């Protein structure tokens, strides 16, 4: 069973931003599904909490150049 986490992300302005965040999150082993909403400034992530933590999800988005609250 997967866990779900909604990340509030600032700095996304376009479809390219959406694709960049999705790609960054999907590189992590254990991420099962990612849904990014640029207008709402959030990403909903389904992941295996046995393989990675919410902090790791936040870190990879930050490394992609966006701020995560």
What does this structure look like?
This protein is of the alpha+beta class and 69 residues long. It has a single domain (3-68), classed as 2-Layer Sandwich (Alpha-Beta Plaits). It has helices at 15-26, 54-63, and strands at residues 3-10, 31-37, 42-47, 67-68. It has a four-stranded antiparallel β-sheet with strand order 2-3-1-4, with helices on one face. The radius of gyration is 11 Å and the shape is globular. The mean pLDDT is 96.
C-alpha Rg (nearest Å): 11 Å
CATH architecture: 2-Layer Sandwich
Average pLDDT, all residues: 96
Runs in which pLDDT lies below 50 for 5 or more consecutive residues are none
What is the CA–CA distance across the termini?
25 Å
